Structure formats: structure tokens, C-alpha cells
Amino acid sequence: MLNPGAYAREGLRQILTIDLGTAHVRIWSPALGRVVEEPTVVAWGPPGSRRAVGRAAVELADRTGAPLVWPLRHGVVDHFAACVHLLRVLTVAHAGSGAPHTPVLVGVPATATLRQQQRLTAAVRRATGGRVSTVEEPLAAALACRVGLDTEDLVVVDIGQGRTEVVRITDGTVTAAARTDGSNDVDQVPAIAAAVRRLGEHTHRPGPRRLLVTGGGAATIGVAARLAALTSRAVTMPADVRLATIQGLALLAQTRPPHPDRPGQPVA
């Protein structure tokens, strides 16, 4: 079972945590002390042309018409070279990475195939030069919400820009996962609710039946209320649905508890 501080090491001065999403990439490190968020996009012209990442890429495209590449598709790496370039530029610029052997903790979709996970890990390693560990994104989000991972019947719904996942967590580990995006582009809620019921029907743990709803799509008005009605579960949402995954990764990387008023930042 993962607990806060699971990836922390005494004497380790630097560690990077990365939430690499289809629409946005988020980075946190102890040295940075805050979450940096940039669009997951690269201005990717021919060799020798000017390249830029994140907001700078969008601005460059507006000014010069430079072609834009979105390195991730449906939550997994689609353009390997552009993904490496994006991460290399952002980690050096914002987190001071560049020293060899800096460990990295990165979130991965719970339903990603082994090959997709390996491709993402390889891109992060190529960009940072450090040892890479992975944690399922819905599990990281659950850690950030401080729910009882070892005592509750917990199902997590992660509604991302390019991927929607429903995950059952038992004793602090992911024991089942399903992907529901693409079933209905207009309204995903019925398919999500069906997956929640399906994944939760074999759980007989006593106690509250909780549904944690996270990801950028969770902020859509009415989604949480409809899921509560359709699944008969008590719904919990993080204070900021966009940041739950990176905050959970930060918890895993820290040796000290986070500041109560600034999730993801340790108490001084």
C-alpha cells in the first residue's frame, strides 16, 4: 500500500513529480515549491526552425504560424520526440532539472498498456536523465484527498481531457480499472455510472461506499450530482480537481506532511 512519503528518501535534495496530461502538464519539486502548469503542446517545425513549448508555443504559432504538435493522445505518448522536448525544456526552466540521476515520479493512466507505460517512462527518462517511477493517476488523486484507502470501499472516476477512467482501490492499491471515454461524446455520465456499479459490485467491505470524482472534466456542472444519484455512492471531490494528481504525487515524494493551507507544500 502506498502512503505519503513512500518515494521520499532522507538526504535526497531533489525529486521531480510530473502529471503529464493530454491537455496540460503539471510539474512539482521541493525546490520549486509550487505547481507549474503548462499546455501540453510544442511548436514543432522542421529541423533548424525555432521551437517552443507550452504557452510560448501557442504564442509563437499565433505570431508566425508555426505548426503545433500535441505530444499526447488519449493520455498516452503519441509523438515521442516532441514529448521529450516538452519535458526537457519545462523541467530545466521551472524545476532546475538537468543534474544527472534526479529521480522522477510520474503519473500514468491506470488503463494504459504495459507498452504505453514503457513509452511514457522512456520519454521522461530521456528528458530528465533520472530514474523514473510510476504511480497510477487515480491512486495519486485519492491520496491527495486523504480518503481512507485501507478502510473504505472506494471507486475513483478520473475525467481527463483525453481519457476517462473508473478505478477500484482496495487496501491502497488499484485492483480493477476500466476506460469509458468514447462511448458517448455528448454525455459520458451513464457509461461512467455503469462502470462504477460494475467495478463496485464485487466489493463487500463494510463502511461507506465512496466515489471520488477528479480530473478536469469533474468540474462540469451537474456531473457529481448525477453520478451520486446513478451509483448510490457518497461523492467526494478534491478542492481543485485539476491538481489532485500532482498533489498526490507530491505527497508521495515528501518526507514532511503538506502545509494544511497549501496542498503539495510541506510544513516549514
Order of helices and strands: EEEEEHEEEHEHEHEEEHEHEHEE
CATH superfamily of the largest domain: ATPase, nucleotide binding domain
N/C terminus separation: 27 Å
Compute the number of structural domains: 2
Low-confidence stretches: 263-268
Helix content: 25-40%
**Strands side by side in the biggest sheet:** 3-2-1-9-10
**What is the radius of gyration computed over CA atoms, rounded to a whole number of angstroms?**
18 Å
Protein name: Rod shape-determining protein MreB
Keywords: ATP-binding, Cytoplasm, Nucleotide-binding
Pfam families: MreB_Mbl
InterPro entries: ATPase_NBD, MreB_MamK-like
How does the SSE layout of this entry go?
Layout: E1 16-20, E2 24-28, E3 36-39, E4 42-43, E5 52-53, H1 54-64, E6 68-69, E7 72-73, E8 76-77, H2 80-95, E9 104-108, H3 114-128, E10 132-136, H4 137-144, E11 153-159, E12 164-170, E13 173-179, H5 189-200, E14 209-214, H6 223-231, E15 234-236, H7 244-253, E16 258-259, E17 262-266
Parallel strand pairs: 1-9, 9-10, 11-14, 14-15
Antiparallel strand pairs: 1-2, 2-3, 4-5, 4-6, 7-8, 11-12, 12-13, 16-17
